[in-house]
Structure formats: structure tokens, C-alpha cells
Amino acid sequence: MLQQTTVSTVMPRFHAWMGRFPTISDLAEAEEQEVLAAWEGLGYYSRARRLHAAARTVMERHGGDIPVEESDLLSLPGIGAYTAAAIRAFAYDQHAVVLDTNIIRVLARWGNMSDPIDTALGKNNLAAIAASFFPRTECRAMASALMDLGATICKSGDPDCTSCPLQKTCRVSEPKKLPKKSSRSVTTKLVEHRAWFWKANRLYLEQSQGPRWRGLWILPELGNAQSSGRILPEITYPITRYRVKMKVHRVVGKIPALLKGFTVDELVALPMPSPFRKVIVNLASGS
Ligand code: SF4
Question: How confident is the model over 154-176, as pLDDT tens digits?
């Protein structure tokens, strides 16, 4: 249910982003700040940056056409083995082994793989099973069929084996237990303290230089700033394997020179990560 909610929330935003940059050249010509501002709410801003960089590379090196060769695709920013295979299979119907979550589940069950799929042995076994499935031609049809099978019949949890076209050859004994994984990610709780510099109807922000939010405007870390002792309403947000509680402190004293002040109207168009947007929208209206 959570995944469905996330997809139904994210997809309209992604379509809106695509509508803003409908062609590769539109995206390549846009300024990074514009691309990041439009990406707000989609998370993982590094993806927007890489898409932007990839569009520029496609324009510069490939005349605006997404390349078909695997080595050319892998040289584009943000394109890894899975995406390159998906582009080759779905866009060009070239031979490529596409392994997304649904396909991995189908193949691991079909082969009754006892090795965890995130180990070297498991990956090798999975690659061997996949190689036997993906034909030299019509990879697009095979990838689509396996994806659909994983999404509708060989579902996570309890598969509907009686409706499965692979039932006669499937070797699975306990499908609910497959695929196995060796590592289970653990969520770590973090608390961060941010400073709220508000003066003359302006909120003072810093432009992040960090890898995750580079170029976006955020509340600065509290650091040595002198808190007024008043902590503003806090929010909690997830980021990769962390669950972060953001506590915002109203600060008194000199505003650091590296910060820049914005009026409430100016904040609207400023690219910023959505957890900061939520805090700032709530608090700026009451400041
Ligand atoms: S028979 Fe069952 S476990 Fe095997 S591939 Fe089909 S749905 Fe999955």
C-alpha cells in the first residue's frame, strides 16, 4: 500500500517534470537551477542532475539521439547496467538481459535459487538463468512479459502459480521464501539541528555544496549559532536508510555572511529539498 501511495504521488509529479522538458534538447538547454526546482518532491536530486548532464552529453556527442551501443550508454551520466539494458531492450529491441525487481523474483523462483541474490554466487546463478530466458531477438517482448508476470502473477509474497504460464517448468518449492537476500537494511534514526535566521521579513538560507543537495537552498546547520532557546515545530523525513528528525531553532545574533536572505515571495520559486520546503512554508507564514 505504501508503495502504491508513493507511486501515485510521484508519477504525476514526474509527468509534470517531463512536460516541462519534453525533449532532450529542452532539458539540455535548461539551467540546472530550473531543472532542480522542477524536480522538487521527486527526491534524489542527484538523479535530476545526472539526467540533465546525460541530456547535454547526448546532444554534444550523439547529435540528440540516445545511443544504442551498451558502451556508449554506460558512458552517459547516471546510466548503469540495468538502465542501459532496459534502453537497449525497450527502446531498440536489442539483445539485453533486463533484471528489474519483478524479473529477478520470477527467475529466482523459477530456478528455485537457494543462494541470496545479493551475493556473488547468487548473482552468477541469476545471470545464468536469465541468459537462458532472454533470446537473441525480441528481447523487448521477453522483458515486458517477465515484468508483467512478476507484477501480476508471480507477485511478492504469495504467487498465483495455478495461473502461471511457467508452472510446468518452474522448480520452486517454497515460493514465498524466494528470492532470498543476505543483507537486510536497518533504518537509523538521526537528529539534525537547523538554524532559522529571520530578519526584516527575509529568511536567510545557504546554498548547499554537499553531494545530495548541491545547488539547493537549505536552512543552515545550527553549529555555533546562538539559539534563542525556542525550538520551532520539527519534522521527520526519510532519506536512504536514515530517518531524520529536523529540529529548527530560532536564532539571534549576527547573520553569517555566506547566507542569503529571501522574501516569502522569492522562496516560492527557489529550488529546495521538500523536507525544507515543508518546514519553511509552515514557519515563514507565521514569522
Ligand atoms: S509457477 Fe509460481 S513461483 Fe513459478 S514462476 Fe510461476 S508464479 Fe512464480
Answer: 999 999 999 999 999 999 999 99
**CATH number for the domain running over 80-184:** 1.10.1670.10
Strands (E), the chain: 188-199, 202-207, 217-218, 226-239, 242-252, 260-262
Q: Determine if the peptide bond prior to 220 is cis (ω within 30°).
A: no
Tell me the percentage of the chain whose pLDDT exceeds 90. 61
pLDDT band at 71 (very low <50, low <70, confident <90, very high): very high
Ligand 1 atom having least distance to the Cα of 164 = 6
How far is the CA of 170 from the CAs of 30, 54, 111, 219, in angstroms?
50, 40, 7, 54
Ligand 1, atom 1, lies closest to the CA of 167
- Indicate whether 287 pLDDT > 60: no
**Degrees to nearest 5, angle at CA 221 with 195 and 6:** 95
Could you tell me the pTM of the whole model? 0.71
- 188-284 to CATH, choices 3.90.79.10, 3.30.420.10, 3.40.50.920, 3.40.190.10: 3.90.79.10
Q: How far is the CA of 29 from the centre of ligand 1 (A)?
A: 47
Q: From atom 2 of ligand 1, which residue's Cα is the shortest distance away?
A: 161
177 Cα: distance to centroid of ligand 1 (angstroms): 12
Distance 28 CA to ligand 1 centre (A): 43
Pocket of ligand 1 (CB under 6 A): 106, 109-110, 153-154, 159, 161, 164, 166-167, 170, 172, 175
Amino acid at 1: M
